[in-house]
Amino acid sequence: QKNNVAYAIYNDEVPESDSDGWKRGHTKGFLLLDKSQGFWVIHSVPLFPPIPEDGYGYPATGESYGQTAICITFKYDQFTEIDQQMLSYNPGVYSCSIPTVFQADLPNLQKLCAGSRLPSAPLHHLSKLQSAHGETFLHFAKSHLFIDDIYVAWMAQELRTDLLAESWQHSGQKLPSNCSLDYHVYNINLIGMPLNSTFYSINDHSKWAVSRETKDQWTCIGDLNRAAEQAWRSGGFVCTQNEHIYGAFRHLIIHYESCADAST
Fold first, then answer.
1. What Pfam families does this protein map onto (predicted)?
2. Which residue is catalytic, options 205, 244, 251, 255?
């Protein structure tokens, strides 16, 4: 810990903890910054990372299924906007340091770090962020009071694109592909990896979605699964139109479930 560096690590499944993680967001990630710039990692790995005092470690559970992670570098001024997203996001922070010099700019992270109650949160909030390299990212954050499927009810409609979605299919009541609104969401069910290997989405713990139409080029990486009980959890996604990220993810998809398949 240093007085000129702030950090926060959060996960809904915390290493060596019996806490009620379900009360916090279904979110996993960490951020670190100084007064110049910093980075934000959003990932899908339970029980990761360990607290810094324990050194680096990667859980065996994270090796059994597919996972995602995205790391974005931001200039310092963007972290005031990220701090606002934390109101709806409500992550379960388990290791942190927000020195005094940061607290005026990062009041919500400071409260999360101290275990204090956050101010009332908007149901959902969309934030436009710019990376240090100048790329635009959209961050969708929903609170537990926005009781709906974030993919169908918000992201696809806001981005004005049909989405192909990949998420954990072992939890609770899986939601079928949905064509009820103007822009549709289809569940991916077969992934193809390099070197001619494939695996079914049932073996994937990652959470991501891409535009069905290549002209739209949206890729979203985040926290929430397409499962009924996830409507009652806070969390979010970061979305980009970076063509290289889109191409890498879109080319993985071998098969997805149509709405006709979902209704049979």
1. DNase_II
2. 205
